[in-house]
Amino acid sequence: MTSGTHLTGEVLLECGNILFFEVAPPVKGTEVWCRKHGKMEKVEKQFRGETYRIKCNTCRYGRNCGSGRLAAETAMVRHRTKRGMHHEMVLMNAQHKILWKLEANQVETLELPNF
Ligand SMILES: [Zn+2]
Ligand SMILES: [Zn+2]
User: Fold this and answer.
1) Domain boundaries, the chain
2) Ligand closest to the CA atom of residue 33
3) Predicted confidence (pLDDT) at residue 78 exceeds the cutoff of 90
């Protein structure tokens, strides 16, 4: 076992489902088992580094946003613009750790982290 390297990752299947792998995510073109559809499916894309997903606690809206954090945050803001500011939303990483939360009726200012 090598330490210090992050081999975890996520892959996007051809059906749009995203799978998380604790070790060595399969490369593009590999066939893996899709639990959601109960069949083998090809890997469409491999994500590097952190991937993000958003979830609405008010209406159960949820979406995998891949590795684009900005896209995920934008989708959160857009969902509330469409459905109402009372929708409480969270931004999570692959391990379901909450990275950002939009409380009900909170006026969000898109403050991006300093890289
Ligand atoms: Zn599938
Ligand atoms: Zn909602």
Assistant:
1) 9-47, 52-102
2) 1
3) yes
Phi, psi of 77, deg, nearest 5:
-65, -40
> Which residues are close to ligand 1, an ion, with C-beta < 5 A?
15, 17, 34, 36-37
- Check residue 32 and give its pLDDT: 95
Contacts of 44 (CB under 8 A, 6+ apart): 11, 12, 13, 14, 28
Query: Residue 100: what pLDDT?
Result: 93
Tokens matching residue 102: 């939009």
Q: How far is CA 66 from the centre of its chain?
A: 5
d(CA 102, CA 85): 9
Overall pTM > 0.70: no
